[in-house]
Amino acid sequence: MSVILNALRSHKGSGSSSAKSVGSGAFVSRRGKTSKSPLAGKILIVVLLVASMFTGVMIWFKNYLTRRTTAQNSALIAKAPPPMPAIPKVDEGLAKARSLFHQERLTESLEVYQVELAKNPTNALLHNDVGLVLLKLDLFKESERHFVRATEIDASCFECYNNMGYLKTLLNQTTDAEKYFKKALAINSSYPDAYFNLAVLYEKNGDIGNAVNTYKEFMERLPDKKASYYVETQARVKALLER
Hints:
Blueprint: H1 2-15, E1 26-28, E2 34-36, H2 38-79, H3 92-102, H4 106-119, H5 124-136, H6 140-153, H7 158-170, H8 174-187, H9 192-204, H10 208-220, H11 228-241
Antiparallel strand pairs: 1-2
Helix pairs in contact: 1-2, 3-4, 4-5, 5-6, 5-7, 6-7, 7-8, 7-9, 8-9, 9-10, 10-11
């Protein structure tokens, strides 16, 4: 509003000035004389008033757009999905224990496994792994305890039942061994290891027919038909059929 007040003051002031002065609101007549125009002063006031109103509208609109953009961004942030959780790194201790196991460094492997098991005593696969190490160390009772614990934690652990069956085979507890192998296959009918171990058990018991059929089941489930164990099993089946 200060612009309008200044314009009004200028207009009033110009009315008291001499007729010879030339400024805002003055014009030259056709006769060459300078005179004051009331209409020109009013036009000036209107122009200034419109300019002031236009400036105010522009400021309001700019503030409105800023508020709208901020609200929209806030809404987008609120609707955005939460960040994906970080992919957990491979446990170095577990990787080390398994590496030592495959290197046949069984005592060292067992020591690392025991540390990992102390940190996570309800992990079925850890108990299964420890049971395998103990089995290879001929510590059968301790091995069986871990296999049993693994199946108590996870009743769907078909690898655990298979390993228990293998342990029972070594102990000549063939009835229990067969039960565990079949339990593993009931959970996972595509698990080749259990077919192979069950075939070995049948052959050990002199049940050649079931041994041959189960060896074939094993070979059907192997992805690599050119692997050495596939060829060896094929030769074993041929030898059993030629008896």
